[in-house]
Amino acid sequence: MKYGFHFSVRARAAVTQMSGHFEDEVRKFSWKQWSYTSGAYAELRKASPAIPCCYGVYLIRAPVPLARVHGESNVIYIGQAGGQSRRGKQGIGPGNGGRGRLFNTRGNDEIVRERIEGLYPGQTFSVECCFLDDEDPEDIERELLGAYIEEHCELPPANHNLKKLIAEPTYEV
Prior knowledge:
The protein is of the alpha+beta class and about 170 residues long. It has helices at about 10-15, 20-25, 105-120, 135-150; strands at about 30-35, 55-65, 70-80, 125-130. The chain has a four-stranded antiparallel sheet with strand order 1-4-2-3, with helices on both faces. The termini are close together.
């Protein structure tokens, strides 16, 4: 059996020579930023200007870089709204009768984000959103997660789903 991955062994070996690859990928897109105080994530619901109910990709950043397996990064979560099969169900911000993907987190992702926020009481975290019309947010999220792994040898701390990066198994006959 042969299994395909979106990132190669050669790419992982090149990590030691890479610096800033993830942020280079981030800079390819146009981002809007909102801030919130540690422990007050819900205040983003009342942000002014409001976070639009649009499809796209978002990053949650800590106030300071955190140590990673390789290097450091202030990105604690990479997410998306409206990708592939979910197209049309919810945008990043609240609206259209829904709470928005930013406020529809639960389980490990939410627990880890809250614990990281607890390490920096009273400090400012940020949410950066890239709203997309023509590109699939799930594809962009996959690219950003792949670049993050290539640079840091692991997912951001509040991301736990490596399935998005692993291709469907292919079998040789």
